[in-house]
Amino acid sequence: MTESFELSKIGLEWGYQGEYGPLNWCSKFPHAAGNAQSPIDIQDKDAVFDQNLTKKPLKFFYDAQNFTTIVNTGSSFKISGLESANSGVVGGAVQDEHKFLQFHMHWGKDGSTGSEHLINGKCFAGELHFVNWNRKKYSNDSDAISTNGHDGLVVLGVLVNVGEHNSEFDKILNCIDDILLRDGAASIKQSLDVKKLFPSDVTSYWTYDGSLTTPPCTQCVKWIVFRECITLSDAQLAKLRQMYICKREDQCCEMFRIKDNFRPVCDLNGRKILKSFN
């Protein structure tokens, strides 16, 4: 029985391996064949320092009400919160103020792989994506996601290395047993201090125009990928791999664990990569 048949059987249109994997996403999601897709391999030697990024530094703020609910999407966990929560991303590469939408993560089957973006060809153990939508140009997040003008979303990418235990991330992991199955949802039990999930230096980053890294892969994103990583322990990363892509316990098996949930890098196709540091 092929994985493609199994994915269809459990109600999924796309996945990360085989017939339903990234190489074939464009058959159902035409935007995935665009020439400004993400992720990419960021070659620092080819990135251009842009002094304008430092004149009005990147700033972002999130209050705790942005992080109240966690859901198993079938491809990752997703954390979101109240519509009325206070948030904002502006400055640096971000022209219009953006409002927080959700954050999620990508990881591998072990600590040697898992990030979507590569830096100078190097893969990391994981990558957090903080997704924010342009509330100045668009009336809602759906419209912002539908655009192909790279002005709908700003995604802050935080690379993850295997290393020291991150106690703040435990507040997420404490909910995993409640969302092992796809569409499982739970409340975040402890208030999340999201600053502890960002690197200490948020002034140094690369930025480029790209896309969503999952279907529909619209080219709506201005990417910001921080140069400095955060760390999670091996045990913390292993906990994420307990989640399933299936909805029912009787469908669950090892092949349906969420792991290697990252898209391979895409061609740069002449796009410029800017950086905020020399």
Describe this structure as you would to a colleague.
With 278 residues, the protein is mainly beta. The chain has one domain: Carbonic Anhydrase II (Roll). It contains five helices and 15 strands. The strands form two sheets. Strands 2, 3, 4, 5, 6, 7, 9, 10, 11, 12, 13, 14 and 15 form a 13-stranded mixed sheet that branches. A two-stranded parallel ribbon has the order 1-8. It is globular. The protein starts with a helix and ends with a strand. The N terminus is likely disordered. Keywords: Extracellular matrix, Lyase, Metal-binding, Secreted, Zinc. Its EC number is 4.2.1.1.
What are its keywords?
single chain, 278 residues, mainly beta, 13-stranded mixed beta sheet, two-stranded parallel sheet, 15 strands, metal-binding
How would you summarize the topology of this molecule?
Layout: H1 3-9, E1 41-42, E2 48-49, H2 52-55, E3 59-62, E4 69-72, E5 77-80, E6 87-91, E7 94-107, E8 118-119, E9 126-134, H3 141-146, E10 153-162, H4 170-173, E11 185-187, E12 205-210, E13 221-226, E14 230-232, H5 234-240, E15 274-275
Parallel strand pairs: 1-8, 2-15, 10-13, 10-14
Antiparallel strand pairs: 3-6, 4-5, 4-11, 5-7, 6-7, 7-9, 9-10, 12-13, 12-15
In short:
The protein has five helices and 15 strands. It is mainly β and 278 residues long.
